[in-house]
Predict the 3D structure of the following.
Amino acid sequence: TRTDRGPQYVIEALDGEMGKDVHTVVVPIHDYELLVSRDPANIQAVLSTRSVHWDISEHRTASWEPMLGYGIFTSRGEHWKYSRGLVRPQFAMDQINDFDLYERHVQQLFAVIDSHLTYHDAHSEHGWTRPFDLQPLFYNLTLDVMTEMLYGYSVHSQKPSERVELPIVLGYESPDRENIGKHMDAGKAWIETRGAFWKYRWLLPSKEFEQHCAAIHKYAEWFVQLRLRRGDKYLCGLQHQSGRPNSDRFVLLHELAKITQDPVELRSQTLNVLSAGRDTTAALLGWIVYFLARHPRVCRKLRREVLHYFGRYVPEQPTGIQFREVRDSLTYMNAVINESLRMAPVVPLNDRVSLQDTVLPRGGGPNRDQPIFVPKGTQILIPTYALGQRPDIWGPDAGEFRPERWIDDGGHKSGFEFVPFGGGVRQCLGQQLARIKSAYVIIRLLQRYDRVANAEPPEAPMRFHHTIENRSGGGVQTLKGHKLLVISPWEAPAGLLEKLAAAFPDLHVVYHVQGWTAIPPSAADDIPDDMWHDVTVLMTFSTLPTPEQAPKLEYVQLMSAGANNVLDKPVFRDTEVAFCTANGVHGPQISEWIMSTYLAFEHHLPAYLQGQKEARWDRKDMLSIEDSANKTIGILGYGSIGRQTARLASAMGMAVHAYTLHPRDTPESRRDRSWTPAGLGDPDGALPAKWFSGASAADLHAFLASGLDLLVVATPLTARTQHLLGREEFEVLYAASSSSSSSEIGGERKKGRTFVSNIARGPVLDTDALFDGLEGGLIRGAALDVTDPEPLPDGHRLWGARNVIITPHVSGASTRYFERVLAILEVNLGRLGEGAELVNRVDRGRGY
Ligand code: HEM
């Protein structure tokens, strides 16, 4: 089609005109009929069980033969059998295992990528490249590798200065190594145009096509002649010996010439393999990067696997990459390759023609499950791409790129549902080579570059081409280091930048002091655009860029424990940027605030302080002092603050009741997944004597009715927790109090038992209900570090409420605050580099 979406068009036509559950159809085209089948049973019959009834079409032969000659890929019948017998033994495992060869060419790829780096200053090792297209670079890479494997002499399209001088072969001009790639690309474009004209291709002018074909033939012929003249000594003259004798090296031409001396045969077979192997692998690499750039999660996970086995890139060191590990251990890499081939099979359409009357097992009868008769001479189109998109085979998310389906879903499809390399008698000979080579290149890229980004508009459609090309890759970028911007109300603590630089040599840190007054509202405006534009990591309280200002942003480390300030910001709402809270930095100081206000209240400290001010020796009712032993603390929201509070309360002899929204029935689910300072908190969730959970009012009331002496409100503020505690809840607390022993300080009021401590956010409590609860004695007292409204205005009646301690949102303050946020940042920078999950990551669904 005009939009390069031919393979997609086949699906759209099948689904649209015939229905999603019709998999085999006959399509009239010009003066013949084309059978199209995306049914694995039929594909198996054609490629494998009844393959003797089928062969590749003359159309394929006629299209490709002028360029490649008759070889394994273009020939039919007996000649194909002969070709396969000739070429097949050359693909034994140990011949595709030449990592030294791959490495030399990958180094040249790196040099080209690095030439796109733009970030030049003292940290010139870091920074984004300009947007550029990796796809053509992969075509050069595979051309260089394949020409070296096939002929022994790489064309070095990536680094022409590496080309060695060739000897003279009398009667033959030196091959045009510089332009061979261009001739192949142009020749292929002609094949495509001629293919569209089908049997009327003779109508097209063909001179230009012939010139490209002649240049390609001349190129291969030269090596054939050199091999025929040099005989067994051919290998001696090869370039680049990689620590082993040239006589051990595998060169296809050399091996084939031991079997046949026919120059045309040698030229054709090597060109057939060159064409089959170069473009396919380059396109696969292009598609893998295409998906990684659009799926940062997958990219991070894959990088984690790569770094786990092979570590980061170390220049000029042996790679230590073992063939067996690449083949057998990289589970996720294999899943990514399979998933890329499923979503974008680089040979998206295959075909055959029937050599005799035959049958296919499925597609006939009213239910389309009966065999169908196929007359001799019928062409069948096998739309590999459409096969990979069938929801009944791959699940309802067949349209999504999800490598996990190859691991989690028991998903390995070994049958004819997944045939990117064909199947049966003509199955691809280069499958292992392609997989290993692609994995190797991706491993090296991920070791060296931290990430890859999409530089195309996100809505750009996938574009395919049936002559093995990824037409979609309009631009990707790679990045070597991270740029961290810290926006802080404090000057950088002494030694901070040095410490970060020592821990992360690739990190470029920019420190920007922004006064408290700017927070909130978040004033991003006083940060210049050129400071934003290449930031990948941001540490901030609430100053945030727009997605356009910081297009490379990947991770935001908030300096607050709550994320409620960012939930409505486009950079949070509309992007995949990871936001992490400072959850965990508050545990020590806030739990101390909770216990100190509670104890102050129980021990009448406010009254005694007042007495001290007035120089009064005035004892309160000594019998009303309650200590904490055997009391019960209820912690609403058992996060890092709650857990550290539980630790203190346990030490004082209190029983802990925890409440969480989601049930924590297993030891695993009780663990604390957020960052916790060493030795503090309750990492295993082992302290609570009772654990309550649930989203309903009844669930919450069961917790409140469990006999709480101290209720700590430590839940994040979300739509769900707004006014979570209102009149009804105070009544429930009171009802539970009256059924057990309680004491109170006030006069004739009700005798509520529970002291409420709010360190979360003001609106979690209904202020009016709280006031009435205090005044009416439903609760024993309250300590409030947060209020609603906040700041609490002059004259607000809560100031004067009975038994209340109010502080102006200070419980989180500590001299150790910044140090702890930095500890989280350090953990996460390490994880980011390894592609691991970040700690304290805000869940976009839950909002905390
Ligand atoms: C991602 C990479 C590759 C893919 C997706 C791929 C796909 C295919 C497919 C679908 C066929 C079967 C065509 C048919 O049924 O008529 C095929 C055949 C073939 N492939 Fe590959 N291929 C890849 C890489 C390679 C490489 C690297 C080589 C060699 C260096 C290679 C060599 C061949 C050969 C020689 C055939 C012809 C087999 C025959 O007709 O008997 N392929 N390939």
